[in-house]
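Got a spare moment? Tell me how you read both lines of this record:
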Amino acid sequence: MLVLDGSYGEGGGQLLRSALSLSLILKLPFKMIKIRAGRPKPGLQPQHYCCVEACKKLSQARVEGDYLYSQELFFSPEHSPENKVYTFDIGTAGSTTLLFQTLFYPLALSQGGTLVLKGGTHVPYSPPYHYIERVYLPVVENFGFQGTITLERAGFYPKGGGEIIAHIKATRKLKIPQFPEKFFPQRIHILSLISEDLPSHILERQAKAAQAILKAEGYEGEIFLEKVKASSPGTMLLVYGEGGPLRAGFSILGRKGVPAEEVGKRAAQEFLHFLKTQAQVEEHLGDQLLLPASLSLLSSEEKTFSYTVSKLTRHLLTQAWLIPQFLKEISIKVEGKEGEKGGVILERR
């Protein structure tokens, strides 16, 4: 049986989520020890526990250690997920988007399905809903994975209370895409978002600050303003670009005491910094592409797939270690140093 050290590398919840996804896809049992052992609050927190229970429900898995704060977990899937409606409530401001990403590939590679996910939709340390909708899903569609999501209600920290609905199509054929040598934005969008209980001037201040930063470097950004229903007040500014099959996006969540202009400015600056690296993929997408690329390479006529990433993160390095633990036919080589621009090379053995 596959035994994984949950404290390896980044040592956080992503190790567990990726292991659960791969276990469901391959019907391969695993045991994980030292789950989040190096974190201030080790073990399964509510959002991780919900993820385990969701995967258990999808596959009718045999599970041991599925309780709050557990640092060891045995997980053995029994069945492939069925095409039906699954509803999961994290019960906190835990990330619905990370739960979505965990369940997306097992459902896509089975019969498809619908997810109703309740919790946080725009919360720290996770991709906000609009990043998933406008950056992540359009890029993974190039590999053959298709899904649509809608925002029923936004969920900001600390109350959460958001809801997203995702419709995931069964994947018929996986493929390896051809990406341009570097990301070049043909269009740049500025999405300014606030909860409906906040004054509208925040929307414009965030957006115009981002637009001014982009314009100073010769880029035009089209502004979109959106007010959303939410249980807790919150704001977000997302700058994202489209470049052929590629997308890139950078978001900043507003915080009490931080001027709206600073939120917009920071998101635009991060986007511009990425463009200057001349990489194909930004740092967040860098680790999120490893799983769909590995799965696609398994069934493709191609034997290799590679891309450059603006910044090698510990998340990426950890994913590059984890995936070949399950997919023995795939090797992942990372060129470069953590924190710097680098390259990722996947090979099918």
